[in-house]
């Protein structure tokens, strides 16, 4: 075989994979700027269109409203970048919140211990999704679609279709739903903390490198010794753990849980991730972009209310934005 042919067929080295990861991050950063610009345009437009949008009360309320979506979307970013998808995060959020409510309210278990149970249970259940997807070679779309139904049914069985309320732990409620410095909602700080943690994990650890490599080119990642199955499973675990965080925050916030909690939430989470510039087919994305995507979703909802638009148009707007983001993603990949 000629030298040229041999070099063409040679497997990628870790140096090549590192270069591809930097390229993916550069591409993600470019898309981040586009998403941030779009968010700024929407922000300015709403500020001039209504008298109440650009007020401290409304802006803090907006950030608090997107906090649960933002936290869950940070975890889903890892799953998407690894080349998979999770449709069950909304149903899992509802199930974990119901489990936490049963333990804390009905059984009187300390809320801090309950919160830990929620995180560990979320990581375990989501990790099972990863195992089924990677080891049984079932597409994650099918796996998590089935789990969505299982989690929703389990929530109804656990609650017997009735809401649970009456959490009486003022210290915990202050921690997850109080006001920092007298005016910043604690939920916002939890979302920021999740964003910082996710960014560090994705950009400054070997695990983050492996997530990009696995989603960018699974065969090449295997060729340089990356255990791609384990990477994907851990991505699901990270996602489930953050769903657990969102569930105990919700419980502390509303002092109870409804059996319908989380229904349809996965659509908003997926929208935030895709709008934020994470590649639909894996290999690129960022936590910052995802959080900006969640902010755009929140501004659409907030703006329709303030502008007096019929609420029936809100899901139409969400769907249109998702389709536009997917079209842009496919177009950019075709150009590359």
Write the layout of secondary structure elements.
Blueprint: H1 3-9, H2 14-49, H3 56-65, H4 67-81, H5 89-106, H6 111-135, H7 140-159, E1 164-165, H8 170-177, E2 179-180, E3 184-185, H9 186-203, H10 206-216, H11 218-223, H12 228-254, E4 256-257, H13 265-275, H14 287-306, H15 314-335
Membrane topology: Multi-pass membrane protein
Main location: membrane
EC number: 3.6.3.17
General description of the model:
With 336 residues, the protein is an all-alpha fold. It has one domain: ABC transporter involved in vitamin B12 uptake, BtuC (Orthogonal Bundle). It is 76% helix and 2% strand. It contains 15 helices and four strands. The strands form two sheets. Strands 1-4 form a two-stranded antiparallel ribbon. Strands 2-3 form a two-stranded antiparallel ribbon. The longest helix is centred in the N-terminal third of the chain and has 36 residues. The protein is globular. The N terminus is likely disordered. It is an enzyme of class 3 (hydrolase). GO terms for molecular function: hydrolase activity; transmembrane transporter activity.
- How much of the sequence is in beta strands? under 5%
Mean pLDDT: 89
Strand order, main sheet: write it out: 1-4
Structural class: mainly alpha
Q: TL;DR?
A:
With 336 residues, the chain is an all-alpha fold. It has 15 helices and four strands. Helix 2 packs parallel to helix 14, helix 4 crosses helix 13 and helix 5 crosses helix 12.
Features:
336 residues, mainly alpha, ABC transporter involved in vitamin B12 uptake, BtuC, two-stranded antiparallel ribbon
